[in-house]
Design a protein that fits this description.
By secondary structure, the chain is an alpha+beta fold. It contains 11 helices and 8 strands.
């Protein structure tokens, strides 16, 4: 039985498979190499790239062989933990020309000079996400997307690259966590934009579908709560009005009421659960004229004022 991949991995695998120009591919490879690459020094130096996705490893292998004619080989390691995660490695011989062309320096935090256009910057951020990125499943109410790196200066470079994209409005921030730094987004709309930026359209649709469903459910809950609060408010007001009407009847002072208030009081006693709108409609029918909700509310305020005159607090 195949293991279900996480939403973050689904985003990565869709993003890495998207069509890109040659320069965009190089921008992606440069960022991935910077984040997940290491230089193995020996008789024959090699670049080692590591990922937990066989699909990403395959694309990396094909990209380096196609673009640079590089001699690559696969390897994999299996962890000894309970989950036994497999890690895939792409090993590339003769790394110097590749490192020079991609402008990768493992001891520097500079973004390559060839990353100029918005699409190239988007591809570079995609490569950084493929290397050290994560995004919460949209079914979680805690929206969070991040890219983890080990160098604070490089984290700042990625944050500025993200926040200064001309057609996007990201507000990425940096957090420190153990021995690494994370460039992160917390707003759902920004996370959606970042997923679109990586060209992971299917994952974007999934994210939005779940998010909209949750927001509709939340709106429904708020409306139910609002209805309940309004019912409680109406009930409390009705109880007070009935209490005041019954007081005036008990002391024989309904003569203080105007004809309209006297009729409204009778309707309130007959319909204790009626809303102001319903009482306004009933009163309009009785008087054969239009009585508004605000007029009914004014009459009840007059009733309350009379009651307070008779029963000063």
């Amino acid at each position: 039985m195949a293991e279900t991949i996480s939403f973050a991995m689904a985003c990565k695998e869709e993003a890495v498979a998207a069509e890109r120009t040659l320069t965009e591919q190089k921008a992606l490879l440069s960022a991935f190499l910077k984040g997940s690459g290491s230089l193995r020094i020996g008789a024959e130096p090699e670049i080692e790239l590591s990922t937990e996705s066989s699909s990403i490893a395959k694309v990396l292998y094909l990209s380096f062989t196609k673009i640079y004619g590089a001699k690559c080989r696969f390897a994999y390691t299996r962890g000894m933990s309970f989950r036994n995660k497999t890690k895939y490695h792409v090993l590339i011989q003769d790394p110097d020309p590749i490192l020079q062309d991609l402008e990768v320096d493992f001891f520097s935090s500079v973004i390559p000079a060839f990353v100029q256009s918005e699409d190239e910057k988007a591809s570079y951020l995609t490569g950084a996400f493929l290397s050290g990125g994560s995004v919460n499943d949209p079914s979680s109410s805690n929206y969070h997307l991040e890219i983890a790196v080990s160098d604070l200066v490089y984290a700042k470079k990625l944050m500025h690259l993200c926040n200064r994209l001309p057609s996007r409005h990201f507000g990425a921030k940096i957090a420190s966590r153990r021995k690494e730094y994370t460039v992160y987004l917390k707003r759902a709309d920004e996370i959606v934009d970042f997923i679109i930026l990586m060209k992971a359209s299917e994952c974007c649709l999934r994210f939005e579908d779940i998010r909209i469903g949750r927001e509709y459910a939340n709106i429904g809950n708020r409306l139910v709560n609002l209805d309940a609060a309004n019912m409680m408010k109406t009930s409390a007001a009705s109880e007070r009005q009935i209490k005041e009407i019954q007081y005036f009847e008990s002391v024989g002072k309904t003569s203080l009421f105007s004809p309209k208030l006297r009729l409204l009081s009778s309707l309130r006693l007959q319909h204790p659960d009626a809303t102001l709108e319903e009482l306004a409609e009933a009163l309009s029918q009785e008087l054969a004229t239009t009585i508004s909700k605000s007029n009914v509310n004014h009459l009840f305020r007059s009733l309350h004022s009379l009651y307070l005159e008779e029963n000063p607090e």
